[in-house]
Amino acid sequence: MPLYSSQPLKIYNSLSGEKEDFKPIHEGNVGMYVCGPTVYSNVHLGNVRTFMSFDVIFRYFLHLDYKVRYVRNITDVGHIVDDVDEGEDKIAKKARLEQLEPMEVVQRYTVDFHNILKAFNFLPPSIEPTATGHIIEQIEIIKKIIDKGIAYVANGSVYFDVVKYNETNNYGILSGRNIDDMLANTRDLDGQSDKRNPQDFALWKKAEPEHIMRWPSPWSDGFPGWHLECTAMSTKYLGNHFDIHGGGMDLKFPHHECEIAQNEACTGQAPVNYWMHANMLTLNGKKMAKSTGNNILPGEILSGDNNILSKPFSASVTRFFMLQAHYRSILDFSDDAIVAAEKGYKRLMEALDALPNITAGNSSSIDFAAWKQLCYDAMNDDFNTPILIAQLFEAVRYINLLKDGKETISADDLADFKKAVNAFVFDVLGLNDDKAADGDSDKLEGVVNMLIKMRNQARADKNFALSDQIRDQLIALGIQLKDGKEGTTFSIQ
């Protein structure tokens, strides 16, 4: 019997504002779409927190024996700088500033995104579609919405008619906004826009002559609107009606609101049963912003190359820190907070190291089955990772008591306890044991130092071909050598 049969799950639905029993459309299967990054810059720490929240959700569904199709897109065109259909595409702007092809920008920052998520031990999604790979699907959706009379063409661009849509639907159903209030509080267009109403949004934008990224369409050479991309990709891979749509809190309006409108206009039905939103990350009590310098990149945490933290911190410690707050809560990142998290993480790992050495007795003096159910109760309550972590520290206490002979555990309970602890720590929370990684690092350092000695000997023997070969092959592996007065050192790129 699958585990989900005995572990009923509640999810906070942003659409209703309440926790609801999770009932998948198809029993035993979960379809989940999460809005991915716009790849015009390095992935920032707030993005990592959002994607980490959904990584844990994905992991827990898998742990419960659900078959999951997890779709997380890459936005590689169409995200306008000011998000209100005016200005320049973010990727095209970056390409112009750096004198690169747009797809060079996309490739660079997609690789960065994947490398960072791999470092933080994320599971890859089932499908990772790109916006540029689904232009045809987006054009077809636009045609359907125009045919329904809920979109109009203006000077080669196509806009979604929010006022017309709202005659039979509710634009604002997700964010709780009232369209009359929105219209009343928006400045007049003063003839400067092709839109009929300020709240209308672009489905297709006609490309100006200097615009690099463009595709042919029935209306103009142009590019799709940002909101449309997710509608096309989510419905293609999950169907017109699927279980879960997730993203950052900042996407609730207008992005997700517009997705709902597009889907309902096109298909006549609500697209998603459960809308989930992860909250923001602050730094030292303030909003993260590159412009103010109150910002830190994930890689800078790992390397220690920053002016904010007292030392480098591992990906597992950073991950553990983030999961100590519920995904719907604002989390403040600071040196004091992550130092405290590191101490807790080490306590947990030390207990796990001691667990294999626990010996079984004839009976159990602790109700370990009840403890395990409390772990499930935490995750079944809208994926409450801080409560789960609290229960894991209760397990740490049990391990220490068992180690000191102050409590006993039967053989069956010990096997079940070990399995449960490891499942929640490594499979569900996605933590790694840094000590194992440190051991690998020590071995790597030893091998590289041996090669450095061989290179130095080759140079002394004037065998420069061998010396250069060692250096070049290390560079190919991402290991950079640096010759200095104190000798040769290396860094991993």
Describe how the helices and strands are arranged.
Blueprint: E1 10-13, E2 18-21, E3 29-34, H1 45-63, E4 67-72, H2 90-98, H3 102-119, H4 135-147, E5 151-154, E6 157-160, H5 162-166, H6 179-184, E7 201-206, E8 222-224, H7 226-238, E9 242-248, H8 252-267, E10 272-278, E11 281-283, E12 286-287, H9 298-303, H10 315-323, E13 331-333, H11 335-354, H12 368-380, H13 385-403, H14 411-428, H15 434-460, H16 464-476, E14 479-484, E15 487-492
Parallel strand pairs: 3-4, 3-9, 9-10, 11-13
Antiparallel strand pairs: 1-2, 5-6, 6-7, 7-8, 11-12, 14-15
Helix pairs in contact: 2-3, 4-7, 7-8, 10-11, 11-13, 12-13, 12-14, 15-16
Name the features.
493 residues; alpha/beta; 4-stranded parallel beta sheet; 16 helices; 45% helix; globular
Structural class: alpha/beta
Distance between the termini: 47 Å
Strand order of the largest sheet: 4-3-9-10
Q: Largest beta sheet, briefly?
A: 4 strands, parallel
Average of pLDDT: 92
> What are the low-pLDDT stretches, counting only 5+ consecutive residues below 50?
none
Tell me what portion of residues adopts beta-strand conformation.
5-15%
Helicity level: 40-55%
How many DSSP H or I helices?
16
Total number of strands: 15
- The shape is globular
How large is the radius of gyration?
26 Å
Characterization of the model:
Keywords: Aminoacyl-tRNA synthetase, ATP-binding, Cytoplasm, Ligase, Metal-binding, Nucleotide-binding, Protein biosynthesis, Zinc. The chain has 493 residues and is an alpha/beta fold. It is built from 16 helices and 15 strands. The strands form 5 sheets. The protein has a 4-stranded parallel β-sheet with strand order 4-3-9-10, with helices on both faces. Strand 5 and strand 6 (157-160) form a beta hairpin. The longest helix has 27 residues, at 434-460.
